[in-house]
Amino acid sequence: MTAELVRGQNHPLSQARLEIRVSAGAPIVASATLGDENGKVHGVEWVAHPGAPTLPGLEVSKQAAAGHRLAVDLGAVPEAVHRVCVLLALPVGVGGPVRFGAVAAPFIAVTGLDGTEVASYTITGLDTESAVVALELYRRQGAWKVRAVGQGYAGGLAELLTDQGLPEAHRLASGINDAVAQGLARSVQAPPQRTADGDRTRQTAAPAPGPDQSGPAPQAGSAPQGAPGPVPPHATSPYAASGAQPGYPAGPAPADPSTVTQPAAPTAGGPVDYSHPRRQTGAPPSPPPTAPPSRPGQPAQPVAGDANGWSMDERLYNQIWGMFEDLARTTAAYRSAVDFAESRMEKELDQALSDPRSRIGGQGDAAREAARAKHAQLVDQARASLDRDLGQLAAEADVVEPALPPAFARWDNPVWHGYRVPMEIPMALRLGDLHLPESELLRIPMLVRLPLERGLWIDSGQAGLPDDSFADSHDLRRLALDTAVALAARLLAVYPAGEFGVHVIDPAGSGGQAFAPLVQSGVLATPPAPGAAGVADVLARLTQRVDLVQMAVRGGMADALPPGLDTAEQLLIVHDFPHGFDDRAVTQLRYLADEGPAVGVHLMMVADREEAAAYGPLLDPLWRSLLRLTPIPDDHLADPWVGHAWTYEPALVPPGSQVLQQVLARVAEARTRLR
Fold first, then answer.
1. Beta-bridge mates of residue 137
2. Nearest alpha carbon to residue 235 among 199, 197, 192, 278
3. How far is CA 462 from each of CA 310, 413, 435, 466, 469, rounded to the nearest angstrom?
4. Closest by alpha carbon to 145, among 116, 110, 117?
5. Are 132 and 153 in contact (CB under 8 A)?
6. Which of 187, 186, 162, 188 is nearest to 174 (CA)?
7. pLDDT, tens digit (0-9, with 9 covering 90-100), for 193-213
8. What distance in Å separates the CA atoms of residue 326 and residue 393, rounded to the nearest whole number?
9. What are phi and psi of 222, to 5 degrees?
10. H or E element: which one contains 355?
11. 0.70 cut: is pTM over it?
12. How far is CA 31 from CA 36, 45, 47, 183, 586, in A?
């Protein structure tokens, strides 16, 4: 059975020949040092690094990568060696992240040669550090053990190697960085030069002329010139509340200016090309899948995972982002073309009516008919271009959807039938689907990065919907609770066993039937808390956890947390708010919403804002801090490029399906094996 270690914990090793697998969210440098009984490294010949990757009993990778496999033979290391330390560092001078706090937490697994996992460790709590001692293999009384270390150094490799007693630490660190930079230069080809004829990026067009301007109508399938670039994959959630709903945050999310590039020069016509300018953001260690050859004159056939990335999941994530941006921009171009056609027709009609001579005889009727005919022609051309782009995006969606991993997939995807509890946290989670009025049949997965950077609000009220046509408020509340349970189950399913806990506050006990899958499977940390006393107890425990972790992190003493403290990510589901809440409980809830996500405590509200109206503006910051979702389709989300009002549909389990219960049962079984 695999031992999932926490910082400072050790585990015995029963075999000498091992493989150490490293997985990170960005390219990193893997090295290793050999130390004596006191952990001291006596010279550069005791360090395995990309410039000198092989030592007796030890071999490391030759260049930076997001994944590494280090070979270790403990029986072949010199007798004087009592400690083998695995070091991870961010490469210097290659334009990547400069601190581990900006990338996903590195995951380390110690396995046998047959792939059987012996121990694993996720290095959490890093911030400004650029180098870290991940783990160490050490000899005690003739037997070897592995210990999770996780000691970071803001000064990089030089500071780390100095701390291990190496006299020439700064010179060796500089040599390692040079070797890595040269290795990247040899292995990564420079991007091809863009040419006027060879640029196959998404076509762009100038903004549509106004009523007083002349010029050709913009073509659908082209992006408005000067539209902002996309939010990079590592940025916060791109989905902002649309200004169509009063009281919610308005406007698109800002993009990271350091990663946005200028749009390509306009090109004329042509089908949608899937080499999206914003999908070419990095060079993966291996090329993505290639599309099968297409016939001359036909567009390239789409392939799942054709975007760049360091893993298949990252490629699919970036591909979905590209599809999201493609649909946003081609729809914006279509709407711009239609607006231009209408403004041109109005201008021509005004000119016909302003001339007294056109009112005599049939000249006026002919001018009006000509204006309307031109309008219809322009709209038809725009719609044809839009339909062409939508057809190719739909073809891409048909290929991508079946290839998605569980974290990205709908509940009706067959991938859930072969579900197994993962060993690593995925990079993102699917919260539902998005579509636009012009593309009712085309659904784009709504993905948010993990861990969650803001809480979720499942709006169970009718006041925020476009119309109050939903007849039964009780059914709407039940749908909201079903949405919350489905999202909580999805979060439990995509985290490794024991690394995510769920708490439920149900003061009136009205959600018992909806919470049954969570309760019966045994995946809840504690039973749903009833009444005001239950509310106070759960909030007190979670706020205390936030306080303790904050103090430990700020004081640099993350290892000094109480032994009984659950370090797993926590999710609090609040139902029937504000029933059972007093002023103190409301203050604690706001505190969790503001401070919790940074230390692994997340909030999911299932509430009707109108029922808490008695608190007045006191709760406005709470609602604004949460990502609003709805249990029925609603157009309240905006993209970060052109600000369309996207219709959100929740990720619900199909009626009659038992997939949720089956997945939760496997999660509970995996937790049982850990005990």
1. 84, 146
2. 278
3. 43, 30, 21, 9, 8
4. 110
5. yes
6. 162
7. 333 333 333 333 333 333 333
8. 8
9. -115, 145
10. none
11. no
12. 17, 13, 7, 15, 49
